[in-house]
Amino acid sequence: AVIWYIIIYYHGDLEEEHLPGNQEEAGWIPCVVNINNFVSVFLFSVETQHTIGYGGRMTTEECPEAIFIMSFQSIVGVMIQACMVGIIFSKLSRPKKRASTLMFSKNAVVCQRDGTNCLLFRVGNMRHSTLVEAHVRAILISKRVT
């Protein structure tokens, strides 16, 4: 909103004779139509950022810098919203209490594979979904007499 205010202020749209009620008499073409003060500039910025729609406020061809800022703000706004949707979706889609839906076999087997002893056990998924990119880490603690 501050950048919009600076553009509109330096263009002269906030002078008394260039405000919306006096524009037709003076033949003035503003950068953004229906801007009276900082509040209306802020509302225009929010409408641009969130692609709400303008209603009565819109840019004109009078200020190329306003057209550039509007395009840039729209692109940045869409990127911010996409990131926020991704963050919220990843937070909501994370499984909770996953340890209670995994079952381990009651018995384990020690066998020899490729010349080394291996501990084998089974893990079962109680959910109907598939495990994607599953990683298992097991630690064997045993006594050893030397």
Account of the 3D structure:
The protein is of the alpha+beta class. Helix content is 38%, strand content 14%. It has four helices and six strands, in the order H-H-E-H-E-H-E-E-E-E. Strands 1-2 form a two-stranded antiparallel ribbon. Strands 3-6 form a two-stranded antiparallel sheet. A two-stranded antiparallel ribbon has the order 4-5. It is rod-shaped, with a radius of gyration of 32 Å. The mean pLDDT is 84.
Whole-number mean pLDDT: 84
Q: Tell me the overall shape.
A: rod-shaped
Q: How many helices in DSSP terms?
A: 4
Q: List the secondary-structure elements in sequence, H or E.
A: HHEHEHEEEE
- Biggest sheet features: 2 strands, antiparallel
The oligomerization state is: single chain
User: Structural class, please?
Assistant: alpha+beta
Please give the share of residues in helix: 25-40%
Short summary of the structure?
The chain has 146 residues and is an alpha+beta fold.
Write the layout of secondary structure elements.
Blueprint: H1 2-11, H2 23-26, E1 32-33, H3 38-49, E2 58-59, H4 64-92, E3 102-104, E4 109-113, E5 116-120, E6 123-125
Antiparallel strand pairs: 1-2, 3-6, 4-5
